Amino acid sequence: KAAKSSTLKSRYCWVGFCAVRQITRRMEMRFQTVLLAINGVFVAALAALSISSEHWLSKEWQLPVVIYAAANLLLAGYGIFTKALTGGDVEGMSLILFLLSTPATCFCVFYCGMDKNEWAILNSYGFSLGMIGLYVSPLVLADGDGTWTSRVELATRNWVVLSVFTEIVFQIPHNLFPDQLHAVKGSVLEWPFAAYGMSDNRWNQYDHNEIYGLHPQVWLINWNDAILGALVLWALVFAARAEVASPQYLHYNRLLILLVLFRDATLWRETVEYMWDHHRLEYKFTVSDDVSGAILGVLRPHAVACLWLVNILWLIAPVLSVVWAYHTMQSAHSARAAK
Question: What is the DSSP letter of 89?
Fold first, then answer.
């Protein structure tokens, strides 16, 4: 019976694998990207549930199901990889790196038992390089009509989406649930903050005091970014819903531009102060000492590098946002005058 059950499980996994492969072959590029994102979330949730509680999945099912989910994820990105290798789709490769970095390192650490500190650094490298690739590739590689204006517009679009994503998905829960994060510290649910904690340990200290839960500077940065990100998201939704030909379009477009500029100016000043504090204090919040028997000094240069890689877009993108705003307003006025 056990052998028969194992054979059936293998067949189900193989059938599912083939089915997803056939479906993703017929999908357009945009749908592959959406499926990739959905499966990325699924892999992370599945890993968290299966590892944290055996009530969700028994041990014999954990590995096959996680492998099946990972296969879905990889197959969803099959077309993107193919185009990346043949058509130079650096954005697609960067998106895969951005989405895969956290669930992949979670799997390696919490399921395969690999070193947490080393894989935390790898997670930061993957996440940050994915974001940088998504922003820089439109600027460097010709897309759209190939003009500088078009490149800045595409890069700024990616920047706005990526920055709002991090503000809403990471910074709001970080501020709202410090007690819960403290309770699950060291687990897969707390992994994103633990990984960045290698570069700045204040981000995974959840018992700083009774008022904030987090370090006051971290608490303030989170709320500032989250509130501004929520406003930009609100304007982005309304601008996307308005038709280009409708009178409301210009109104929402101007509102979006103003909110992006205001937010980016605040983020730029905040990041300059944040990185200057790290530099003048000689990166005292970055990992360096012996912790839990692991010599972390060798990882310190990588942790400092990741600190800069994660935050570099917050210094560069706001400057080009001004260029994007100018060209967008000029285009809107030209279109209006032409009517």
Answer: -
Q: Phi and psi at residue 288, in whole multiples of 5°?
A: -155, -25
Residue 37 Cα distances to 67, 177, 280, 305, angstroms:
17, 24, 39, 27
Structure tokens given for 164: 């709002």
The three-class DSSP label of residue 294 is strand
Closest CA to 212 of 244, 178, 180, 183: 178
Phi and psi torsions of 144, nearest 5°:
60, -125
Q: How far apart are CA 30 and CA 28, in angstroms?
A: 6
pLDDT at 276 over 90: yes
The alpha-helical segments, DSSP class H, found in the chain are 2-25, 29-52, 59-76, 78-87, 90-106, 116-140, 148-166, 172-176, 178-183, 191-197, 216-241, 247-280, 300-311, 313-338
152: exposed, middle or buried (Cβ count in 10 Å: 0-12, 13-18, 19+):
buried
| Token pair belonging to 156 | 């700024």
How many CB atoms are located within 10 Å of the residue 119 CB? 20
Residue 273 has pLDDT above 90, yes or no: yes
Tokens standing for residue 86: 């043949």
Phi, psi of 207 (to 5 degrees): -130, 45
| pLDDT higher than threshold 80 for residue 12 | no
- pLDDT higher than threshold 80 for residue 18: no
Whole-prediction pTM value? Answer: 0.70
Q: Phi first, then psi: give them for residue 122, nearest 5 degrees.
A: -60, -40
| Mean local confidence (pLDDT), 314-336 | 83
Residues 6+ apart with CB under 8 A from 112: none
Q: Are 188 and 51 in contact (CB under 8 A)?
A: yes
CA separation for the pair 290, 49 (Å, rounded)? 31
CB atoms under 10 Å from CB of 273, counted, come to 12
User: Which is it for the CA torsion 76, 81, 84, 86, positive or negative?
Assistant: negative
Do 107 and 47 form a contact (C-beta atoms < 8 A)?
yes
Distance, CA of 312 to CA of 123 (rounded, Å): 17
Helix (H, G, I), strand (E, B) or coil at 290: strand
